[in-house]
Write the structure tokens for this entry.
Amino acid sequence: MLEFSRVGYRFPGGDGVADLTFAVRPGEVVALIGLNGAGKTTLMRLGLGMLRAQRGEVRLFGHPLNRMPTESWARVGVLIETPLAYPELSVVENLRIASLLHHGSPGQPDQAMETWQLSALSRRRVRRLSLGNKQRVGLAAAMQHDPSLIILDEPTNALDPASVILLREQLLDRAENGAAVLVSSHHLDEVARIADRVLLINAGRLIGELDTTGPDLERTFFDRIRIDDDNRRLAEETV
Amino acid sequence: MSAAVRVEALKMLRSPVGAITAVTLVLGLCGLLIVITFGASSGQPQLMAKLGPAAAPDWAGLMAGAEQVVSVASLLACGVVVAWLFGREFADGTIVGLFALPVGRAPIAVAKLLVFLAWAVLVGLLLSVCVAVLGLVFGYGMPDSAVGESLLRLWLLTVLSGLLVIPVAWVATLTRSLLAAIGCTIGLVVIAQISALAGLDGWMPIAAPALWAIGSDPTVTGVQLLLVPVFGLVFAGLTVLAWARLQLRR
């Protein structure tokens, strides 16, 4: 559904990502974990056309991203950094415009508010919502049109424990029904609960998968990062 | 396209920016015209000299005052609204949500411009109606055809000002900055004033509508006025292209 083949992008300052190769298949939850600045958001932006790859190729639904029919984007649900929620609009108005922009059906906002427990806030303007509730509006907007591919960047940001469970159930349920899910997170325990595969990203490169069945996930994660940093430093010194 | 227009229209209707800017423009104009009229009634020679044709206690004086105020104020007001329409997506971070949609960014940019022009058309109409009401309240009698033409010119001046500030949308997109867009608005007003003072006349599109409406340069031709929509279309095209090719680099 989403395929990266040796994808690279370098920002003018020198940071960026390189040689990214992986795929997310239907019915699969793939998690992306890494430290701040490792390249998680850049990877997601490349997958969604927010950045154009300078090297390699991104394919979505079998098409190269630049040749994908525009209508196919209706099958994608996204929350990257800022929820699509305008402060001057109410919760229901925000969901209506998100549905319109995804070519959705008129009944979707009501159903989404029920699913994400937003019905009591439906008439409230987003500027008056807490961060967690605003995030739930963003998640509802990203998923109300029942997308085949879901890409979420740090979706548990500001969510309370009940909302985290709601999100987990939603993602697992949608994956069970055939959706492909790519999600980035700092919460290793949460990732271990939902992901079929966990990809490790460090300094702009994918450095392998993390075994989530081990006893001390945090330690394993940091060990992998440290080893990769050491190897890279050694390689740079050799050059 | 219709989905994008509906979305942008709702955002404009719900935001205080469009309404507050319109009210400020209308109340500001009416307030200034009232002050000018009462000031002129004192008959002080120095003040009368400063006010020029606007000091006359009749329709012609009222329209002269209105055209002078609107020629600058409408540029500022239209610039603020365009700056907000485009710059807010970057300032609020909502631009991220306008990617990965079956509605492309180019149609979204076109929708923003259409909603803005609809706003300018309505505000221009409101300004003309308010000036007409003010004239009636001042007891200048029923407007004749010449006054009607002046009121139409005032409306067109606001609409043309709307076309002149479209570069603000382009600047907001290139810089990803609301403040830079506001700066561009001020820059356009300054350029318009300098062009008029430098005697560039109607060949400078930014100054042409004001010179035509105020009547200080009766030689402004139809061709010169036609350059205004061409100017607006060129910058609209550049803005739509910039939105279509947009990338979210840091």
Observations:
- The interface with chain B takes residues 11-12, 45, 48-52, 70-74, 76, 78, 80-89, 93, 96-98, 100-103, 141, 151 of chain A (CB under 8 Å).
- The domain at 77-185 of chain A is CATH 3.40.50.300 (Rossmann fold).
- Strands of chain A lie at 2-10, 16-24, 29-33, 55-60, 63-64, 76-79, 149-153, 180-184, 197-202, 205-209.
- The CA atoms of residues 5 and 146 of chain A lie 27 Å apart.
